[in-house]
Amino acid sequence: MELIKINGNTYYIDNPTNVGLYIYKNKYCLMIDTGLNNNVASKIDQILSNNGIKPKYIVNTHNHPDHSGGNAYFREHHPGTIFYTSEDEKLFIENDYMFHSYIYGAYPNKELHKRNAKSKGSYIDNILDWGVNKINDEKFEIISLKGHSQGQIGICTPDKVCFLGDSIFSEDIISKYSFPFLFDIEEQLKTIECIGNLEYDYYILGHGSKAYSNGEMKDLAIKNKLNIEKHLTDIKELLNQPLTKEELFGEICILNNMKISYRSFHLCLSSMSAFLAYLYDKDTISYEIENGKLYYFLV
């Protein structure tokens, strides 16, 4: 974990979940995301301290625990820090149990809770609007990047660096975890198109090992779209015979040689619901209920 300069006053701390920084002249900074939990947040804080930087503003791209799990730490250790996110993400960040509730379908059990047991929900001070927002007299562009979550945002600094959260996945992530965790397929496809049309000098992903150039990001957008289209094709082919959601997911696991944990099972099954909703709303599939089981099939 180290502080890496991208351009001008814009940096990031490399981490399993990257943390963005815009450093003001007075050495206060705007942070983008806070890491998984208090443990990770304390390590990020140490890097800031070692470089004479103090957090003053924090923007959460979205609510998932690996992006907002350190919020409570920074509020406690840096009183006066101001937190920002989108309106849709605010509810989930302030009530951290809700993320696992929606992937589980009820109040989550201890197995799902334990990964972020040391993090707590954190109050959001301000809602960011789409377009240009001024934070401490500097202008940042906020972009709607829905799809991976309900109200995910990207933030672009005055140095033409754009932080994209989990709106798009790196080649390594697609290779290792081909079946993407998504909330809304329709919105995700719109987001990928939006990213492909952006014109910034550098892009940072939530999970990636480098700063991407504009050309590289356009190529990556195409790869993300093709990956979604591949899974839509596979699902339609599998639904030539009626399958339950879990049976369908089992077939997808076999096709992609996926090895999953208890938690990732629920993440992926939630994503399968998003794919099925997309196809159902397009009148591509239908359903029937028989003997207490819900089957989907191609129309």
Polypeptide structure, described:
There is one protein chain. This protein has two domains: 3-228, Ribonuclease Z/Hydroxyacylglutathione hydrolase-like (Metallo-beta-lactamase, Chain A); 239-298, Arc Repressor Mutant, subunit A (Orthogonal Bundle), CATH 1.10.10. The chain contains eleven helices and 15 strands. It has helices at 38-50, 65-68, 71-77, 87-94, 97-104, 110-113, 171-176, 185-196, 214-238, 245-255, 262-281; strands at 3-7, 10-13, 19-23, 28-32, 54-59, 82-85, 126-127, 131-135, 138-144, 153-156, 161-163, 202-204, 243-244, 285-290, 293-298. Strands 1-2-3-4-5-6-7 form a seven-stranded mixed sheet. Strands 8-9-10-11-12 form a five-stranded mixed sheet, with no helix packed on it. Strands 13-15-14 form a three-stranded antiparallel sheet. Helix 1 packs across helix 3 (71-77).
